[in-house]
Hints:
B: mainly alpha; MetI-like fold; 14 helices; disordered C terminus; C: alpha/beta; D-Maltodextrin-Binding Protein, domain 2; five-stranded mixed β-sheet; four-stranded mixed β-sheet; 21 helices; globular
Amino acid sequence: MSSVIINDLSLSFGDVKVLQSLDLEIGKGEFLVLLGSSGCGKSTLLNCIAGLLDITDGQIFISDRNVTWEQPKDRGIGMVFQSYALYPQMTVEGNLAFGLKNARVPKAEIAKRIARAAEILHIEPLLKRKPAQLSGGQRQRVAIGRALVRDVDVFLFDEPLSNLDAKLRAELRVEIKRLHQQLENTTMIYVTHDQIEAMTLADRIAIMRDGAVQQLADPATIYNRPVNKYVAGFIGSPIINFVDGQLVMNSDPFLKAGDLKVPLARYEFSGNGAREGNVVFGMRPEHIFMDKAAEDLPFRAEAVVEVIEPMGADTLVWSRLAGHEFRFRVDGQTAIKKGDRIAVGFDPARASIFNAETEMRL
Amino acid sequence: MTQQSRPNQLFRNLHAKIAAIPMIFTAVVVFAGGTLWTIFYSFTDSGLLPRLKFVGLAQYERLWSTPRWLISIENLFIYGLGMLVFSLVVGFILAALLDQKIRFENTFRTIFLYPFALSFIVTGLVWQWILNPEFGIQNVVRQMGWESFAFDPLYNPDIVIYGILIAALWQSTGLIMCLMLAGLRGIDEDIWKAARIDGIPMWKTYLLIIVPMMKPVFITALVIIATGIVRVYDLVVAQTSGGPGIASEVPAKYVYDMMFSSQNLGQGFAASTMMLLSVLIVVIPWAYLEFGGKKRHG
Amino acid sequence: MNTLKAVLAASTMLSVVTTASAVDLEVTHWWTSGGEAAAVAEFAKAFDATGNKWVDGAIAGGGNTARPVMISRITGGDPMGATQFNHGQQAAELVEAGFMRDLTDLAEQEGWRDAIEPSSLLDSCTLDGKIYCVPVNIHSWEWLWLSNKAFEDAGVPVPTNWDEFVAAAPALEKAGKIPLAVGSQSWQIHGVFRVLLISLAGPEIYQKVYGEKDAEVAAGPEIAKIFKAADDARKMAARSNVQDWNQATNLVITDKAGGQIIGDWAQGDFQVAGEVAGEDYTCLPGLGVGKALETGGDAFYFPSVDDPEISSAQDELARVMLDPEVQVAFNLKKGSVPVRGDIDQSAANDCMKKGLAILEGGGAVPSQEQLMSPDIINQINDLMTEFFSTPSMTPEDAQQRFAGIIGSAS
Amino acid sequence: MADTGALNRAGVAAGTIPRELSGPRGARPRRIVSRGNIILYGTLFVMAVYYLLPLYVMVVTSLKGMPEVRLGNIFSPPMEITFEPWVKAWATACTGLNCEGLSRGFWNSVRITVPSVILSIAIASINGYALANWRFKGANLFFTILIIGAFIPYQVMLYPIVILLREMGLYGSLTGLVLVHTVFGMPILTLLFRNYFSSIPEELFKAARVDGAGFWGIYFKIMLPMSLPIFVVAMIIQITGIWNDFLFGVVYTKPDLYPMTVQLNNIVNSVQGVKEYNVNMAATIITGLVPLIVYFASGKLFVRGIAAGAVKG
């Protein structure tokens, strides 16, 4: 059963097309993350779902109801904003109660719901305070609480953690995940530009660019089998290595890029098959190994170390391999230095290869 | 209730539209309607009462051959230029001085701003009194022994407009100062740190870095000053009544006198149309840039 | 909206009927100086004695300030009970547009046509054979007021005509006096010029220029002489820096100035200050040479209203204003001449008697307000003001511009 | 000066500092009487004198008797303080036959100002709110006309408004004048409120909509309570503006309703003999008192509000 269905949705401001013919289907209880860089239309899409923006074309269904022209309050949604958007003149309790009062929920019921939300979010001691007296993390809890008390089917998060510092962000991230697990039947749509949030929270991720969805899949698929070069480059940190080359389809297909030759016998081409031509070869830094760890891998070569970036737990090595720059990750305890010649290797099966023109996965 | 079709556009935001009715009425009927009415009747020979006897451009021809109108325009030009330059410069300097983390900042600010609370009538009467040669500054200086001292701007046709300017500046620079001060306070402290580290002298920092950063404030100030300039009327009436002679006449007063005292509405309408024209040439492009073109969407 | 008004009017009528006939009648005017206010009080007193109530609507700052207010109230649909205007064309359009009450019936009943003298005053109130206003006084502009003490201080005899006055100017200057006090408002400066014109060039020339708008005469040698005289006047007035006419009069009263050319209303202020004609000050009608006086003055108009109670109060006020006793009392305070030829003038003082003598000798000429539209008058006002305040402007230039304005009016 | 302490303690703790590092430490010694300060405070002082002078002259003159005024030094303090000019200005100064001083005008001004301020602010704040948060088609056009209207010289619309009021049957009435003030206050106030409401995070508005509040609900429950400062600013602008108005008061009312400024002008220009400068000055101060009190009482809010509304322009 689907919770939210978006059907051929378009939005333009004058001549500017902000969202183009989007189709999305989100299941009940699913956690969907809309991920993309700023200006990709993800927040706009969320505002459309919320009913805060009038769409130009298409339909929106929530819980099997066509809500395309409904007011936000009638859509059965709760929303959490980046800037918390707490009403500064009201106490925490007032903030939580505001929506319910507008909906003319009986007083006793309001109190009950607030108590429950406060318990879930551990904000009981804060109820009598004003937002200005709260820390950022507390404010965002309250903001989540405001959606929670509404007892709705769909939660909309608009970059809820972006205003918090790294430590708090990690904390609240887990809490949101726990909340989602607790509220089994609640659908969550979560907008962010932070891929870690996306990977950790999402059941499925929709990667957006220029008002269109590039790929909609579970995090593992997005990570392992990005549908195009943009997605491959967007997901993963440090960023994936790209090498321009040619795909040669002899008996065994291989990649040729200058002096570099990578056999691709183990690579799984996608359905539409592979043709010879210019391609971009992608290999994630964490899938390249050195020394002993590289010994058994199908592809091995010698690389020269150019820059070393120690990051504590691990170290990022910038090296040159057959004239191409490759970054890879090694253990933080490594002793290699600039100028060392080292043996590296990887498994071409874990690569991603894209058509150089269409940038689509091969 | 589930709506399947797009609702009528007229009823989207219905409450906002109802709430805006007074604004729409004011904009369309009073401002636009009243203005068009005035322009329309400026082509008639309406006297005491409006009447529809068209005389083409005759009112305008007469207007531009009337010495009093020409003097009014010249005065407005001097006054306007003086107001713009001095308000902005003095306002900015005062703001910059107050921004030096000085003691008694509140006291000084209060002193500079209080005249803004007073009406032009009051302002005009006070300055008329201070600039009165028999009792005011001229007399006091003479009593102190400088017998030939002469400072009687309100009685000297050549400089009377500057006498009015002094009073106008007294009344209104405080406001500009406040705007500027707010602008200065809004500037990132880091800019100052960067300028200090780069060894840029303070005045240069102000001139080359701070002022350009405060462009929006300057535009606001400019608009506020400009609004006041064209309107200047009460002050002149209270201070000089246009005298000595007709040396301190201003267009707004010409319009008023023509409409009501000379009982020549047509001429008054023509003069006000000219005022309007000059204002619109400046304001329409500004208003369009500021409010018309830009869209605010996420 | 009109029905609503009618209902409202009807309801007020009912309430008025039940509370007898005391009607508050608002009267607007611009008489605010000491003598003027005292004169108005006579009207108010007499009107209140009829059982009605005079609600005073004085508007300060002279006619040029007050008239706009009056006109916009009348045209704005909120008329007062009665309002002052100068004789002549000031209210002509209001009358034409039907804003003013026709007083013909009352005038016939009261026999105004026979009583009012000179009859030109009533003519100015008449449009298409109907009478629309009540003249209340005759004012004439052609007066030179001199401070006897100032001349004594300067050691010269009090002049008896304009030329002597001009000749005495250097002596006054030397004694630290301002020879000629002139309020810097434009209507006063124009007044000085007109007085010079009527007194020195004579009423015929005045009629040609102001009445017939003869631009050739205006550009001719007679007027050139007047501009020369005006040139003298502006030099004598160079140090006069007051605005209002009564401030200028006050300079004469306090002997700081030698003299002032202003209408007979100044006399009221001399009286309020306790000065005696002939002893403290000297008056020279027609500048001591002319034998003609402008007979303009003030008149009251009564806006048309639907309410019969107010209409009858208006009638009452009109009657009161022309009542012989009230006329005498009012005009004595105001310093003007009564409009009735049939009343006792013995209470008049020296100056007034001199004026009456000239009028009886056929020296009455119509005032500028009767001859010209306010628009033209204001243009001349501006020109004269410019001339007086711009020493570099030659009499010839000024005359040429003057002739231009006269020509445009014909 | 907390920094200095910390630095000093650090110095002590360090104990063995190499000689070449033991130069000046701690806060830079500040000279109170530096050349820069003299210029700074000197300029401010001179400017303050220029701004205070008229107020001083008004007060001093209003406390002198006429003979002393005639002596001619407007700056000298009164030798003998008299409050008679004040009494006269308030209670007995004459315009024509009315010798009630400014007292009647004062109450008229109150009767004009209070409803005008309330109505104009109510309408303008709703306009600003609709423009900032509920943009509808054409809103910008109307707003642009309105703003251009702020620049149109009043004289252009003086006469058409006489006609409009006449047609509505409101000419010369208090209601009419209140409407005129509302209309002419609208552009600048609407701009003020629009800018202020635009500066409130849009997300707050969105949250309220999700919470089910409508146009009026959001206005009264969310926006109004958050906007106290800007309302105070608007009130200050309107109270001073309307109290100080002369033109509308003189054109659109009748003498019973004349506001104080018009009465002031009448009294000052009703010269009976000599100009009584002391009474005029007392009358002038009395007239300016209300806006001055408003200004002094609101103090910082006035400045802060102006900044909030205008700087964003």
